[in-house]
Amino acid sequence: MMSAAAARPALALLASASASLGAGRRAWARLAVSSSSAGSALPRFRGRRSVAAAAGGAVMGKAGPGAVDADAGMNAVQRRLMFEDECILVDEQDNVIGHESKYNCHLMEKIEAGHVLHRAFSVFLFNSKYELLLQQRSATKVTFPLVWTNTCCSHPLYRESELIEENCVGVRNAAQRKLFDELGIVADELPVDQFIPLGRMLYKAPSDGKWGEHELDYLLFMVRDVKLNPNPEEVADVKYMNRDQLKELLRKADAGEDGVKLSPWFRLVVDNFLMGWWDHIEQGTLQEAADMKTIHKL
């Protein structure tokens, strides 16, 4: 675990970045650049791998040119994210053991052959009416396109600010970053310390014959009224739903009506945790529901 002393410089940088987000954060136009011009991405932390990673070969290397050619039809934005973003590899006890491209982390052949497991997060954002914000993933997403899911689902990256483990600061930083990228919610509206980590779950789910997920997922909750500006490269639709509306969405998904599909991780949270946690939200006792010691294998 990163020490508090080591974490302070990263937290100071985060505070400075948050203060200037309104004027200085990257515009949506940045998302439209081709992968050949994506070298301006933020630098990533390149610290030494753990002993476990070095011994076990946890870092499998960048996907080669052949992989790029094989996926030439992939949307340029998604291709850039797949090959440039590096996820945090962990063991089943959530110890960091290395890093790998998002592309390799989501190939089912690598998941099945190497048991590749990466850290993730799922944000559940409620408004002051205690309605849950859902998003429908865009049609250009490589994994699980056009499925309905919770507010935001993504990965902390292998960079210093998102590797801070104390109080889940790294995962919270990643959630703040991605909520801006996907939904246009500025950092001032999502203070990092207001994300409440309620639990962790470990799951595996195929998307199609090629892609899938194998994640150790942090479940982050927040009650906050925010302004939305969804990014169409990431999000096809958004809706706030109360409990009854969510139950109707679940019914449609189960019946195959209107082409409604749900992400597997969202369904796992709904079936195992969400309604009980929703009670705590309405009662103002959400912190009492938190259990960050257990890793639920679902």
Automatic annotation (TrEMBL):
What top-level branch of life does the organism fall under? Eukaryota
List keywords of the entry alphabetically. Chlorophyll biosynthesis, Isomerase, Isoprene biosynthesis, Signal
Q: Which GO terms label this protein's molecular function in UniProt?
A: isopentenyl-diphosphate delta-isomerase activity
User: Quick one: signal sequence residues?
Assistant: 1-22
> Pathway of this protein?
Porphyrin-containing compound metabolism; chlorophyll biosynthesis; Isoprenoid biosynthesis; dimethylallyl diphosphate biosynthesis; dimethylallyl diphosphate from isopentenyl diphosphate: step 1/1
EC id: 5.3.3.2
Q: Name one GO biological process term.
A: chlorophyll biosynthetic process
Which InterPro entries has this protein been placed in? IsopentenylPP_isomerase_typ1, NUDIX_hydrolase-like_dom_sf, NUDIX_hydrolase_dom
- The residue ranges of the Nudix hydrolase domain are 116-268
Q: Which GO terms describe its cellular component?
A: cytosol
Q: Name one Pfam family in it.
A: NUDIX
Which NCBIfam families does the entry mention?
Answer: IPP_isom_1
- Family indicated by similarity: Belongs to the IPP isomerase type 1 family.
What is the role of the protein in this entry? Answer: Catalyzes the 1,3-allylic rearrangement of the homoallylic substrate isopentenyl (IPP) to its highly electrophilic allylic isomer, dimethylallyl diphosphate (DMAPP).
PANTHER family recorded: ISOPENTENYL-DIPHOSPHATE DELTA-ISOMERASE (PTHR10885)
Q: What is this protein called?
A: isopentenyl-diphosphate Delta-isomerase
Which organism is the protein's source?
A: Urochloa decumbens
Q: What is the lineage of its organism?
A: Eukaryota, Viridiplantae, Streptophyta, Embryophyta, Tracheophyta
